[in-house]
Automatic annotation (TrEMBL):
Residues 20-108 form the STAS domain. This is Anti-sigma factor antagonist. It comes from the Bacteria. PANTHER family: ANTI-SIGMA FACTOR ANTAGONIST TM_1081-RELATED, ANTI-SIGMA FACTOR ANTAGONIST TM_1081-RELATED-RELATED. Belongs to the anti-sigma-factor antagonist family.
Length: 108
């Protein structure tokens, strides 16, 4: 059995907000590993939280559900969440599920 890897890095933190990069495979197992840290960061009271997904090589419905929960946590904390660098296949999945209308995406 191989273990899927996910990397979460804080890449920027300043007066404009918080930048976070995710890289690797985001599935049932790895979403559970990064969600506590993302939830913690969402509660820090930053005005903006930018999540760079350009390094995501795979994302299933567990990852998409994670983004929806994170969006709700951010809204509750008064933080604006923005997903950027979203891979085309993930954008397509979000569109099929209709969550692209709920999640703020910056497609590159």
């Amino acid at each position: 059995m191989t273990t899927a890897l996910i990397d979460l890095r804080t890449v920027a933190r300043d007066h404009r907000g918080l930048g976070i990069a995710l890289a690797g495979e985001l599935d049932f197992h790895t979403a559970g590993r990064v969600e506590p840290r993302l939830a913690e960061l969402a509660g820090f009271g930053h005005r903006n939280m930018v999540l760079d997904l350009s390094g995501i090589s795979f994302c299933d419905s567990s990852g998409i559900e994670l983004f929806l929960r994170l969006h709700q946590r951010c809204r509750s904390a008064g933080t604006q969440l923005l997903l950027c660098g979203v891979p085309p296949l993930l954008v397509k999945s979000m569109q099929v599920l209709g969550v692209d209308r709920s999640l703020p995406l910056a497609v590159t």
